[in-house]
Amino acid sequence: MDISPDQLRDALLYLIAFLVSITVHEFGHAYTADKLGDRLPRSQGRVTLSPFAHADLVGTIILPLVGAFSSIPLIAWGKPVQINPRHHTRLGNLLVSVMGPAMNLLLAGVASALIVGLGRAGLMHETFALVLIQFIIGLNIRLMFFNLIPLPPLDGSAVLEYVLPNQLQIVSQTLRRYGMVVLYVLLLSGALGFLMRPVNTLVVAWARLLLRNVPA
Fold first, then answer.
1. Is 4 helix (H, G, I), strand (E, B) or coil?
2. Which of 17, 25, 26, 67 is catalytic?
3. Residue 94 has pLDDT above 80, yes or no
4. What is the DSSP letter of 74?
5. Helix crossing, 90-120 with 197-211: angle to 10°?
6. Over the stretch 128-142, which tens digit does the pLDDT of each residue have?
7. Closest Cα partner for 47 from 5, 1, 81, 97?
8. Overall pTM surpassing 0.70 (yes/no)
9. How far apart are CA 56 and CA 40, in angstroms?
10. Is 26 a catalytic residue?
């Protein structure tokens, strides 16, 4: 397979952006659990913004690179933050779970503010703005929505578990057993792409709005 310099550049940019995005995502989980009194993430060195603490060799490095150089449908991930269930109520578990996607939204927001601020000051070129939009803003918005899909092991499963009444918790229990199977069926069938289509539309609209503040 021939790899052009542009493909290599984009693959490396994507890998760096994914590593940063996974780091802030997992840090959000670890920090929230720690603040709720669960010392397990801190004892495992997870309450940090160091990428080395959150990267998984296969899920964070190898699979993103394979995906960047091929059209194979893949799911990438970071090293999951472990928590002690005895320290968390259902609400606490919900807060720990949603803080990961919330950190992705925060990172997208910071990058957007950087584009607007530097763009209006004439210090942000359109080329660099497009890099931030593609590899930070777009990526993190998609990660946020993807992780809120209510299927284990995604964070949205905790939201589903929290909102379901006790008599319907069997749904959550069943999804814990088959969630990954359902997720891969969605991925391989193309249904996941259909579900994410409104998110892609949002990213495009967001990008157009930001680029109005950047000189060409």
1. coil
2. 26
3. yes
4. -
5. 30
6. 999 999 999 999 999
7. 81
8. yes
9. 19
10. yes
